[in-house]
Amino acid sequence: MTSTETPKSRHPPLPSEEIHLPGPHPARGIYGFALYIVSWSLLVVYLIWAITPVPILNRLGITYIPSKLWALAIGAFFPSAACLYVTTIFLINCWNFRGYAIFENIEDVKHDFGQRSKSNSIDSINEKPTPRKAKRC
């Protein structure tokens, strides 16, 4: 072996090393699963805090908790934030594309792909095409 040759591996390279694949890396699936578990856990903790009366939480040893009014505020915040986000994105897009006037610039182009071929077309609606025999598999 000369100094310009590279040693060849016994195993072919992994697909991610050889070419760029459009799919996400496996680590994203692991992070997604962890986020799924954490979000469900936080939802359960939130619902326990919001629904369980304060004396029962105090008997369980949970004494340092926020007011129950915050449960209503947090519950109202997320739907309000989602509506505000959608409205903001819509208004930004209307501003960037100058409102609904973008539909006034549409041109109707006739025969965009050329004239239709008359060679094998049916000239009349009442004319029946020639029957074809079905091929057996």
UniProtKB/TrEMBL annotation:
The chain crosses the membrane at residues 30-49, 69-92. One of its GO terms (cellular component) is endoplasmic reticulum. One of its GO terms (biological process) is GPI anchor biosynthetic process. Keywords: Membrane, Transmembrane, Transmembrane helix. It is a multi-pass membrane protein. Residues 28-131 form the PIG-P domain. Residues 1-20, 116-137 are annotated as: Disordered. Its main location: membrane. Signal peptide: none annotated. InterPro entries: GPI_Anchor_Biosynth, PIG-P. It is found in: Membrane. Pfam families: PIG-P. PANTHER family: PHOSPHATIDYLINOSITOL N-ACETYLGLUCOSAMINYLTRANSFERASE SUBUNIT P (PTHR46346:SF1). This is PIG-P domain-containing protein. It comes from Caenorhabditis nigoni. The lineage of its organism: Eukaryota, Metazoa, Ecdysozoa, Nematoda, Chromadorea.
